[in-house]
Amino acid sequence: MIGGLFIYNHKGEVLISRVYRDDIGRNAVDAFRVNVIHARQQVRSPVTNIARTSFFHVKRSNIWLAAVTKQNVNAAMVFEFLYKMCDVMAAYFGKISEENIKNNFVLIYELLDEILDFGYPQNSETGALKTFITQQGIKSQHQTKEEQSQITSQVTGQIGWRREGIKYRRNELFLDVLESVNLLMSPQGQVLSAHVSGRVVMKSYLSGMPECKFGMNDKIVIEKQGKGAADETGKSGKQSIAIDDCTFHQCVRLSKFDSERSISFIPPDGEFELMRYRTTKDIILPFRVIPLVREVGRTKLEVKVVIKSNFKPSLLAQKIEVRIPTPLNTSGVQVICMKGKAKYKASENAIVWKIKRMAGMKESQISAEIELLPTNDKKKWARPPISMNFEVPFAPSGLKVRYLKVFEPKLNYSDHDVIKWVRYIGRSGIYETRC
Amino acid sequence: MTDSKYFTTTKKGEIFELKAELNSDKKEKKKEAVKKVIASMTVGKDVSALFPDVVNCMQTDNLELKKLVYLYLMNYAKSQPDMAIMAVNTFVKDCEDPNPLIRALAVRTMGCIRVDKITEYLCEPLRKCLKDEDPYVRKTAAVCVAKLHDINAQLVEDQGFLDTLKDLISDSNPMVVANAVAALSEIAESHPSSNLLDLNPQSINKLLTALNECTEWGQIFILDCLANYTPKDDREAQSICERVTPRLSHANSAVVLSAVKVLMKFMEMLSKDLDYYGTLLKKLAPPLVTLLSAEPELQYVALRNINLIVQKRPEILKHEMKVFFVKYNDPIYVKLEKLDIMIRLASQANIAQVLAELKEYATEVDVDFVRKAVRAIGRCAIKVEQSAERCVSTLLDLIQTKVNYVVQEAIVVIKDIFRKYPNKYESVIATLCENLDSLDEPEARAAMIWIVGEYAERIDNADELLESFLEGFHDESTQVQLQLLTAIVKLFLKKPTETQELVQQVLSLATQDSDNPDLRDRGYIYWRLLSTDPVAAKEVVLAEKPLISEETDLIEPTLLDELICYIGTLASVYHKPPSAFVEGGRGVVHKSLPPRTASNESAESPEAAPTGAPPVEQPDVIPPQGDLLGDLLNLDLGPPVSGPPLAASSAQMGAVDLLGGGLDSLVRPGSPCIGGTNFTSPPAAAVPASLGAPIGSGLSDLFDLTSGVGNLSGSYVAPKAVWLPAMKAKGLEISGTFTRQVGSISMDLQLTNKALQVMTDFAIQFNRNSFGLAPAAPLQVHAPLSPNQSVEISLPLNTVGSVMKMEPLNNLQVAVKNNIDVFYFSTLYPLHILFVEDGKMDRQMFLATWKDIPNENEAQFQIRDCPLSAEAVSSKLQGSNVFTIAKRNVEGQDMLYQSLKLTNGIWVLAELRIQPGNPSLTPLQLSLKCRAPEVSQHVYQAYETILKN
Predict the structure, then answer these.
(1) Low complexity composition bias: which ranges (chain B) (predicted)?
(2) Yes or no: is domain A4-130 CATH 3.40.50.10860?
């Protein structure tokens, strides 16, 4: 299991060091600094073995988190734990920075003591942790016995993510379908790979222990129902989507999903990620990029890029940004664009073209002349792909929320009393067109 | 409030100041001081001097302060064991606290204080906490048992904690179950034999129920534990699989990977005909692909595991090629891993796409990545025949870019393509030759030289090209030198008229001016071959080469199976068994896949294990550097090793292809030896006398020099025999023999790596044996042993080891360890290696001793078919330290009286009766007398071996 956990700043100074196992000594702290943080080359692996000791690291801004072990640990678990650790810290004090870590080092030690025991990860749900690890420090005598046992039963219980007795005057929930659409397109416009990775994020402000059921236009479910009600298939069959794979928050009953494909759960209070999913079929690609790069002699490049929006004209895309890479030996760039603003950014080796808003079924164009310095570098310019960023108010996968039902048998509010909000946001993931 | 200020105090006298503050009456000041102490501890300052002062702060109601003090205690208790006792009372008291959080905190911290005296006090509170009413305390206590076991295993057993822990597996709270499982699994690892976890269908059922309810981490503990279980039949395997599959949809990647591990393992037991088998295969693909949208570090772990899964069960992901396409912004470690998997998944169906991608990658920035991409193109050509032409043209395009490392990498792979598809793509040679000057890496130079030599007849200026390399012959690496030698010999055989001078030049460079034995050996072989029979030489050197296989870099099947059992763990990331990177006894228990219970095993195996063919038949396409033919003919110039070349060396044939492949038949057992007579006699170590002489006349003299060199001082040495076949030792083959020379015994070993991975960290150990034989020095293998490479080692032995009588007497049990495993074998050593040099007895002494030893100790033997005269026998035996003391002629028979002494001081006296005249008819009569009659039999055997060889 995890033998120790260290946090370093960008210089390699130790901010937090917690050792869980006897086989990890103080020299491990230095070994990681010398061999990884101060290494001359770029990091070639997130797992490093130095003298039979394995180091797992992740980096958040310029903070290094390293887990150390001498055993054959579950590597996936160690990384999941490190991410979780970051989440927990962020939930307590915001951004993970050197200053915040130093300011909260006592708290971090307290957390580390709680969520890792002898290197075994324990309950690390912030909801539960915040009930008994507080920055003020609990004065034990102020708690009643019931409060104490409520805490412990939540920390260890089956529904470790929610405590009993939550009350809201207004029962309300928000569902955000957040998708990032990824594309890799050849210069000729052929889709090399495209997929949507989506998340359903829920914010719940519900009283009691509500039992929820979530439904979407999942092809398998629709087809199953279609067998029963034949008249509906024609209509809804088209709108259903094929989900390649999905994963759920630990509150979802997986065995029920596996047998009936129904998504039922008791939600944590507040915001959480209900599910993640991935689709690859029938994706609506909101934009198409058509590049044209011409080399005029050895010192000049002509670039023309057309973007076409491909969705309902009534919808508006926002925060559009097209990034056209330029060679390292660029000396000057002239840009003309019909819409938005374009700038050559020498430090980033790219022309960045920004458009605030763009409606569906439109197109826009940019052309640029790039002057090059003559070089005797034999190596050709690698022509990195043109990448794009945008945000659209629909789900490129075609996912639709069909229902989210709430039942709370003990309290007297029904599904109708809950105010529900649904929002779809499609963003660009890695959206690249080779040129 | 900001705590960062605690990090900034660096002035002198700090400890003193802190001491004052810690003893302050004000609570706030105390707390501040403890925080400062912890901050100093964090940055690595030694604040152990404050131990008593900090411990004094322990008695407090403030939980935050208490936790800080505990943190300090955990760090320093070990250095101040006596003072740590001071804390015990508080711990014991806290374990009784009404607040479960405090009870748990106390028992958790106590377990982390590794002081023997404290552990005694820990037992009682721990026993209570294990049965606490609050699950939070119980789950903490469960882990504490593992902690205590780590400090004092015996104590845990004596106190019966293990049984209590086992009971917790049936606890009503899932988290308690999960932690108990984790603790038991860890304890069980250090007791491989004990059936601690005692997994049976009932307990498995409990675990599966808890699996649905516990935290994500708990699910991981349980799944990892389940993976160690072996279901009793395929039905049970299936029912467990059914209950584990829902975990594949968990958001936590580690849960998913651990579930995959259980499924991959239990699938082994399911019949392929089952519908369920197919369903399961289909269910595995999507979650594996989803792992690739996780954070990069997890992607890396996932990709390393997918690499194993793809090798084990290619059918799972065969349609998912696209998801492994490299993204521009992927970290380099993700890119390289994706590339690996792409090559494994490449097939006729998707090759066009793959190639287009690879070509794209070859223009990227990262040098390692680009090289790997270029190499991948070559591997595609070799793997998918239909694509070979396209691959070659892609490679040619890349060569046109003139980017130095791209060109070199391309040439290396084109060489392999030529090997795979002879006489198909030679039209590109001209293009390759244009780039000769830009090659600066040995591998690329060697590849290019190979191409020139191989196709010398099609390259008009082949001689010029090779000659240009020859100028700097001695500055080249061995790889290039060997290749150049072979290439020029090939050239000579193809165009003998114009290149005589060149070949002489290279032969003399290789044999005369080089001190590299490999190079010299190869030079001599060619030289002799050319001089004795040019026709035979042609047949040998220009013989058709065996085809190379298409799969490369495959993990050896046994290792692969083991790694499948470690999916998700570090072992699967390193692609090494845990024993290779875990210290001590922990985690070195070997895991293996469960045997298939269904009947159709034979139909299954070829598909399930595409790598199942013996590794010997799968020479690497790209032989790793240094894997040269080294000791290919075992021409050991040191101690004279007579006898035919080893059967074992056929294993190295993979490497011999550098020679042109033709030599294979020379050494392959079973095939007639072409030059057998020449090669079996030990070649002279002498320097050829007539190097300038024209080939064909002067050189043949060389062979005459060989006679008479064979008998150096030293006893007879048997040819090496295979002691440990590769099959039994995960690809390590050991053959060897024993020698005795000038008073020292040694064990001559040849280690051959027939596995597909590099072997390192060799060590050897002997069991106790009859004569106390023991290694006098550690086993020195200087470089890691690459696949298909072998190494010769002479291990000096002494006889001062521990003695234990073995059966048979000369049995020696040996353990050899390498990075993969420890292997055991036993061998019989010939007794004559124990005959010491001062074994000559004085005549009088001999007579007295002979009479003194009772007659029942006399043993009679016959040695047949030994047509030697008395003198010859005497001198032969003398070479092995059997000394003739007197010779008499009695009734027309020669009587030899001999003595010998063993290393342990046992004298053996012998009377040998030889019938002169017709020794082939009448056997030699041997009478042995010894105070330890059990050695007689072995002495007789030694006589026989000495006399008959």
Answers:
(1) 598-611
(2) no
Q: Torsion over CA of A276, A278, A282 and A283, rounded to 10 degrees? A: 70
B568 at interface of A, judged by CB pairs closer than 8 A: yes
Tell me, what's the ipTM? 0.81
B133: nearest CA partner in chain A: A149
Confirm whether residue A341 is marked as ligand binding: yes
On whether A238 is known to bind a ligand per the annotation, the reply is no
Supply φ then ψ for residue A137, to 5 degrees: 85, 125
Q: What residue spans of B557-599 are helical by DSSP H?
A: 557-564, 570-574
Is any Cβ of chain B less than 8 angstroms from the Cβ of A27?
no
CB pairs under 8 A between A and B: 298
The answer to which of A65-79, A148-162, A206-220, B871-885 has the lowest mean pLDDT is: A148-162
CA distance B128 to B793: 60
pLDDT in tens, A130-158: 888 876 544 444 567 777 777 777 777 66
Distance CA B534, CA B521 (A): 18
Report, in this order, helix, strand and coil percent for chain A, each rounded to 5: 25, 40, 35
Question: Is 2.40.50.140 the CATH number for B721-829?
Answer: no
Residues 6+ apart with CB under 8 A from A78: A2, A56, A67, A69
So what's the pLDDT on residue B797? 86
Phi, psi of B36 (to 5 degrees): -60, -40
pLDDT at A74: 95
The ranges assigned to domains in chain A are 4-130, 172-225+239-281+400-433, 287-392
pTM of the model as a whole: 0.69
Q: Which of residues 110-149 of A touch B (CB under 8 A)?
A: 110, 113, 117-118, 120-125, 132, 135, 137-141, 143, 145, 148-149
- Largest pairwise CA distance in chain B: 115
Is residue A343 a known part of a binding site? yes
In angstroms, the CA A278 to CA A196 distance is 6
Residue B48, class by beta-carbon neighbours within 10 Å (0-12 exposed, 13-18 middle, 19+ buried)? middle
Q: Dump pLDDT digits (tens) for B56-75.
A: 888 777 788 888 888 888 88
Interface of A with B in 43-72 (CB under 8 A): 43-47, 49, 52, 54, 56-58, 69-72
The C-alpha atoms of residue B756 and residue B782 are separated, in whole angstroms, by 19
The domain A287-392 belongs to what CATH superfamily? Mu homology domain, subdomain B (2.60.40.1170)
Task: Tell me which chain A residues have a C-beta less than 8 angstroms from the C-beta of B257.
Answer: 74, 76
Q: According to the annotation, is A345 in a ligand binding site?
A: yes
Instruction: Find the mean pLDDT for residues A56-72.
Output: 94
- For residues A323 and A344, the answer to whether their CB atoms sit within 8 Å is no
Judged on CB neighbours under 10 Å (0-12, 13-18, 19+), B639 is middle
- Determine the residue of chain B that is closest to A52 in CA distance: B581
Chain A residues closer than 8 Å to B583 by CB: 23, 52, 70
Candidates B102, B133, B216: best to mutate against A (most CBs of A within 10 A) is B216
- What's the fold here for domain B834-948? TATA-Binding Protein (3.30.310)
Selection from A213, A376, A185, A352 nearest residue A285 by Cα: A185
Alpha carbon B484 to its chain's center: 32
The conformation of residue B386, written as its DSSP 8-state character, comes to G
Digit-coded pLDDT (tens) for A337-352: 989 999 999 998 899 9
A161 vs B: CB within 8 A:
no
Does domain A172-225+239-281+400-433 sit in CATH 2.60.40.1170?
Answer: yes
Question: Which residues 264-303 on chain B approach chain A with CB closer than 8 angstroms?
Answer: 286-287, 289-290, 293, 295-298, 300-302
Q: Is there a contact between A73 and B570 if contact means CB atoms under 8 Å apart?
A: yes
